[in-house]
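Example 623, ligand 2-acetamido-2-deoxy-beta-D-glucopyranose.
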Amino acid sequence: MTRFDRQRLRVAVLLLGFLHGVTASRCAGNACSPPVGNLASGRTLHTQSLCCSNSSLMADDPFLHPDTWWESGVTAAGEDEIHLDLEDRFCLTHVVMVFRSPRPAAMTLERSQDFGRTWETLKVFAENCSSAFGLPDDVSQQEALCTSRYSSAMPCTGGEVIFRSIAQGRGMDDPYSPEALSILTLTNLRVRLLKPHRCPASPFTSSRGQRNTPQQAPNIRFLPKVPRQPSRNSTSSDSAPYAILSLLAQGTCLCHGHAEQCLPTGGQNSLQSSGSVQVRGRCVCTHHTAGVHCEKCAPLYNDRPWRAANGSSGEPNPCQKCECHGHAQNCHFSQRVWSSTGGTSGGVCDDCQHNTEGRKCQRCRPGYRRHPGRPLASPQACTRCWCDPVGSVPVRNSGEAGWCHPRSGQCHCKPGVGGTICSHCLPGHWGFGLEGCRPCTCPLTCDPVTGHCLESKPNREFYNIPLGGKIPDLTHLHPHEENKSWSNELTVSALYDTGKCTCKERKVKSVSDLCRMKHSYVIKASVLSAHDKGTHAVVQVKVRKVLRSGVMLLSQGTHSLYPLSWTSRGCTCPVLNPGSEYLLAGSEETESGRLLVTMQSLVVPWTSTLSFLVSEALRRGCL
Ligand SMILES: *[C@@H]1O[C@H](CO)[C@@H](O)[C@H](O)[C@H]1NC(C)=O
Ligand SMILES: *[C@@H]1O[C@H](CO)[C@@H](O)[C@H](O)[C@H]1NC(C)=O
Ligand SMILES: *[C@@H]1O[C@H](CO)[C@@H](O)[C@H](O)[C@H]1NC(C)=O
Ligand SMILES: *[C@@H]1O[C@H](CO)[C@@H](O)[C@H](O)[C@H]1NC(C)=O
Ligand SMILES: *[C@@H]1O[C@H](CO)[C@@H](O)[C@H](O)[C@H]1NC(C)=O
């Protein structure tokens, strides 16, 4: 590869990196920080002495402009102040001041975290801490507030004053931890220059002696106009009590480890908008966070509590998206939900659209039902209920088209009425009308319109086993039955046995157990689904065999069971699991024609042993 090729490759890689920068940033999968810079540059530094010199000269780039400085005017008390007022909260890592004059004999560095309402001293600088401030010196006492390291008169020019927010030796693993933030953040910085030094070895000592005479002030005022003059000989400048070549307030915007870029606070979005060096305050948040400081989660990402990134492990701790199935723009965090899910998910969708409701907009709102052919995320997933106005129970608040089960679309039928929309009489009932349907009072069945007894069996094939009859292949009668997939969506989760339901189950040990049964119906059936109807539960079963039926004539096909026992945990007892096959025996409610499941009912999972016992019982004719 030639050198030229290599260069081209490098350019290509750089370009790729640039293009990638938008998506695959350093923040991807990691804690990240915006670049650090001088918080003072590009901002106005307010000083007490307003004459004489442009304060921004001390915050310009010392490499580009090494010979520019700010110098104070002469004040009566020999004091001056420099304020840096930030428009937002920032993190300050360290301060370095390079003096052109001798360093002050006494000065303080203070910060405010509340836009100047209250102030806190970060560090006190004095040649003699005890005489100047009555404080111990950190030279002799570690971590003391005052230090004498940066206050001697020598060198006369170029002396530095250094402050580090996080003192060396004091371990601070994670810059995003609350402890670190309490140390690092500020909205204002104030340097109070309290006592000037005179330069002991300066050739200008004599002129220094006059520096407090007010007559000198007019001279000083001329100085800023010639800042680039090789100043070493400028007598008037040397009479200023304080002169600062450079003030570096190194810091970064406050983003809790969730951003690597910052924009002007409240300003335009363009990164190039003003100058180049200013450290801006509004974070460009990643990890699904939001806010000026990425201090909260983005609107649809409140499934977990917000957390700062972990600066020591690098974990980004991103916000987690709420599952709202595309029906909401916002969610909020609920501590109660968080606890109830064992600390995995706490998001509650706000303002579910498209006629949905629920924590995850996962249900159709009353009066609407799931459209069976459409995915839950479809805006048309919920369609209006339609119920037969004659056969269904009217809704209280008129104007609604009807009420139906939000999942199955099953309408609320009057007694003796069946069908999804309550459009006809149940088997064994007659007289479809505003009062519902009446039960037949016939040995077999009756005409559904007139109620007259019918001699013949109904068209539907009933499975009445003759006494002593034998049913071959009881277990393998329907080998090709379609395997229904049981999504939790379809079943009422409270009724679905998640293992927490405990019921006292009755067991069948022998044929005589079966023969002793005094139940009005005995069937073999598989449970299709369970529905929470509010006041009661309804379990849909597919009847495979009718071993005994009472007043209600039973046929093969889908029937409803009405479990009466409903535990506080929301289980039916005995447990009826959708998808499982059972031997079911129980009583019936003759008035309504309902098949009941009570604690006295027999609900036994279908096994080959049971199949054998049932065959035996049939053979003996006791079933
Ligand atoms: C101070 O200097 C800066 C840039 O160097 C300039 O923008 C600003 O207007 C000056 N201020 C005064 C009061 O001269
Ligand atoms: C500081 O001043 C006190 C009295 O004001 C004096 O006793 C002490 O020796 C001084 N310390 C130094 C290091 O000069
Ligand atoms: C300072 O330097 C300037 C030229 O750079 C010269 O004209 C002036 O006389 C000097 N002043 C003193 C006090 O040396
Ligand atoms: C950050 O990660 C470190 C190391 O994995 C861990 O000890 C510390 O507890 C974490 N901090 C927080 C706030 O979770
Ligand atoms: C039905 O599902 C069961 C278990 O999930 C499986 O063993 C069986 O093969 C399936 N039957 C058919 C017909 O797909």
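Summary: Confidence is low (pLDDT under 50) at residues 7-23, 204-237, 268-275, 458-498.
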